[in-house]
Each structure stands twice: as structure tokens, then as C-alpha cells.
Design a protein that fits this description.
68% helix; 434 Repressor (Amino-terminal Domain)
Length: 103
């Protein structure tokens, strides 16, 4: 039994991220959708962290944005597409400046 566990560990290897993503998303369309989802999730996570740092709840932020707590939850979860105007409103509500960069 011990040999089996050691064999499983030896067979498990980390793959380079690029290789893993290419295996998971075999078409350009799938990969583009995944990249878009990741971008929204990453942005939402940054909003979440900033909100937490200043001690706001989702309801507090929603009140400043004149929206609902559920919309803030969708934004932070990466499920909401946003315009630059909306991003700017969020930044102002969090007492931050919006900076956008292309890489």
C-alpha cells in the first residue's frame, strides 16, 4: 500500500501554466472567454480587497453607488460587465482613482 502512495506522488507533476491553459481551453474562443472571466474576477477581487481595507460592507458600497448589494456581489464575483464610467464611480466611492493600463 505504501508503494502505491509513493507511486501516485511520483506521477503527479506540475505543468507550466501556459501548457495547462492550452490543455483546458483547446480553442481560441474558449481561451478568450476564460481570459475575459479572469479579468473580471481579478478586477472584482481588487474591488473586494479595497472595500474591506476601508471597512465597507457590500451594502455600504451599494448605498454610495445608488445600487443594490447583489450588484456589488456580482461585480466582486466577476459576474458583471462594467463600463469605464461604472468603474470610475466605484473608484470614487472607495476614495480611489481609476487607473487603466494595457499590456
Amino acid at each position: 500500500m505504501n508503494t502505491k502512495n509513493n507511486q501516485k506522488k511520483e506521477n503527479y507533476r506540475f505543468k507550466p501554466l501556459k501548457q495547462y491553459l492550452n490543455e483546458q481551453y483547446t480553442t481560441k474562443t474558449q481561451r478568450r472567454k476564460a481570459d475575459d472571466s479572469f479579468s473580471r474576477l481579478s478586477l472584482g477581487y481588487n474591488i473586494y480587497i479595497t472595500r474591506k481595507k476601508i471597512g465597507f460592507t457590500q451594502a455600504d458600497l451599494a448605498k454610495k453607488l445608488f445600487t443594490t448589494q447583489s450588484e456589488v456581489a456580482r461585480i466582486e464575483g466577476g459576474y458583471q460587465n462594467m463600463t469605464t464610467d461604472k468603474l470610475n464611480e466605484i473608484a470614487k466611492a472607495l476614495n480611489k482613482r481609476l487607473l487603466i493600463s494595457l499590456k
